[in-house]
């Protein structure tokens, strides 16, 4: 008489589960509110998406592509932005001065 020894049932490994989660995507959402005597003091909204980049793009999520803080050029962009804001302030001041001058001549 022969006996077959069977091991534990073949389960999914961690890599298989992770692959499945990343392929399909998982969304975790929650809100935490702290209130005192009916007055809301603090609300924290948590939205977490776990997916591959390809899956996120497929869902229309690509915020990391346009976020300057995630760019290697973040410092350059901040400097350019500050320079542009300074130029706008100078142009507005010149325009205000010109408008005032024309109003006093009229």
UniProtKB/TrEMBL annotation:
<dbReference type="GO" id="GO:0012506">
    <property type="term" value="C:vesicle membrane"/>
</dbReference>
<dbReference type="GO" id="GO:0005198">
    <property type="term" value="F:structural molecule activity"/>
</dbReference>
<dbReference type="InterPro" id="IPR050530">
    <property type="entry name" value="GvpA"/>
</dbReference>
<feature type="coiled-coil region">
    <location>
        <begin position="74"/>
        <end position="101"/>
    </location>
</feature>
<protein>
    <submittedName>
        <fullName>Gas vesicle protein GvpA/GvpJ/GvpM family</fullName>
    </submittedName>
</protein>
<keyword id="KW-0175">Coiled coil</keyword>
<dbReference type="Pfam" id="PF00741">
    <property type="entry name" value="Gas_vesicle"/>
</dbReference>
<dbReference type="GO" id="GO:0031411">
    <property type="term" value="C:gas vesicle"/>
</dbReference>
<keyword id="KW-0304">Gas vesicle</keyword>
<dbReference type="InterPro" id="IPR000638">
    <property type="entry name" value="Gas-vesicle_GvpA-like"/>
</dbReference>
<dbReference type="InterPro" id="IPR018493">
    <property type="entry name" value="GvpA-like_CS"/>
</dbReference>
<comment type="similarity">
    <text>Belongs to the gas vesicle GvpA family.</text>
</comment>
